[in-house]
Structures are given as C-alpha cells and as structure tokens.
Design a protein that fits this description.
238 residues; alpha+beta; Structural Genomics Hypothetical 15.5 Kd Protein In mrcA-pckA Intergenic Region, Chain A; Alpha-Beta Plaits; 3 domains; nine-stranded mixed sheet; four-stranded antiparallel sheet; 7 helices; 13 strands; elongated
Length: 238
C-alpha cells in the first residue's frame, strides 16, 4: 500500500500531513528514513515492530484486536453523549479506516471484558448466533436467590418480556445469597438483567468476566486495555 494512504487510514493525519511527516524524516522503516510518501510498502503483521513515527512504534496495522476492561459509566458508542469506550484509546484511532468497533456491547452500567476490532470477519465470527460462544457475567442482586433460578434458566423455556422465542439454556452458579455467575450463549438486549427481572429480582451490579475460553486478565484495571495476541483470540473462539 502507498505509505501516505496507509498512515492516513491509520489516523496519523490526512495525506498532506503524512507527506509533511515523511519530508521531515519522522517515518523510519527497518532503521532507514523513508523519503517518498507515495512509495509502496508491504503491510505485514510485524510492521508495527519495524516502523517508527517520530521515534515511536507504529500503531498496529489493520487487523488489530483490543482487549479492554470497560469501566462503569462509559458507553459503547461512536455518537452518544458522555464518555465513550473509544475515548480510552489513542485519539487518532477514532480516525482509522476501517473503523474500530466494539464486538457486541456492554451497557453503560456494566463493567468488564470488552473486545474491539477493525476486523469485520472476526467480529461477526465472535457475535454470530450460530457459534453460541459462552459469555460469563458476575451479577450482584438486590434480593437473595430463591434456589429456583438455576433450574428456570437451564430449562431453555424462559420467555423474556415482549419476546416470543424462549432463551437458550443458561448456567447459573450461586456464589452467595445475592451474588451469582451466569453463563449465557446469546446476546439479547440487556439479557442478563431481564433474566433476573423475569424471576422477580433486580441486578444492582453486573460485570462480564469472560467470552468463550478467555477471561479478563486480572492485571487489567478498569479503563486499561491491551492488544490481543493470536493466543488470546484463539481462546476467545474456544
């Protein structure tokens, strides 16, 4: 790809700004200062390790996957008011093409594991209803569990309000009188909150612990993120 197009697509600026960066000697590949903004370079997976911009490593080229510990009060949206998950990452990433999108959504009052990617094929592979990837949530409830919720959720017969298709079976693991881990394989709107509402309870706090075979790294504090490795992605896909 042309160097100016690549860097522009990655959010470093419009082509005129990229050309100025190249002219100023700020773009270096394999230790060599690049001089032609219209020159073509191979976009390889290791490019971020080989190229620097103004002395700093190049951002990951298209195909990146971000693992984010979403904090409370942050919205999974490009347009809504208030703080957005995209505000937690470098500002130039908002200008990337293809755009970075969340893999599914967590509502504003739900924390935990959130994936973001510019790889449309991978995004659809993870959220596809056909895959039934398990998603694990830790729920804190307003009222004690009755002991019947596990059987109701596992039966595959629960109807949410306003819907006519029963939920797939879900696994409930009580952790205390008012805390439980719930594993679901669907992604319906506010599903976990609506499931507990259907059995007469209310979710006071909700945290997503894992997707597929991948758990949120304990060292990743709320608001922090890291780039996913191939092993991380393989674990997500199970």
């Amino acid at each position: 790809m042309r160097l100016d197009r690549l860097l522009s697509n990655m959010g470093y600026g419009v082509r005129k700004e990229v050309a100025a960066m190249v002219k100023a000697g700020e773009v270096v590949l394999d230790g060599v200062v690049l001089k032609a903004a219209d020159g073509r370079i191979p976009v390889t997976a290791d490019l971020a390790k080989r190229m620097t911009i103004n002395g700093r490593p190049l951002d990951p080229p298209p195909g990146l996957v971000v693992i984010l510990h979403k904090p409370l009060g942050v919205t999974c949206s490009h347009k809504e008011m208030g703080q957005l998950v995209y505000d937690l990452m470098p500002k130039r990433w908002r200008r990337r093409e293809p755009a970075i999108s969340t893999v599914g959504r967590l509502d504003k009052e739900t924390s935990g594991l959130l994936l973001l990617t510019d790889d449309g094929e991978l995004l659809h592979k993870i959220i596809s209803p056909k895959r039934h990837l398990p998603k694990r949530y830790l729920a804190t409830l307003a009222r004690p569990l009755t002991g019947e919720e596990g059987l109701i959720f596992a039966a595959g017969e629960l109807l949410l309000e306003g819907e006519d298709k029963p939920l797939l079976p879900a696994l409930l693991e009580p952790l205390g009188p008012t805390t439980a881990r719930l594993t679901i394989t669907e992604g319906r709107y506010h599903q976990v909150r609506r499931m507990f509402a259907a059995v007469g309870n209310h979710v006071e706090a909700l945290h997503r612990e894992g997707i597929g075979g991948y758990d949120l790294p304990p060292e990743l504090a709320p608001g922090q993120w890291k780039l996913a490795s191939e092993a991380d992605i393989a674990a997500v896909l199970g």
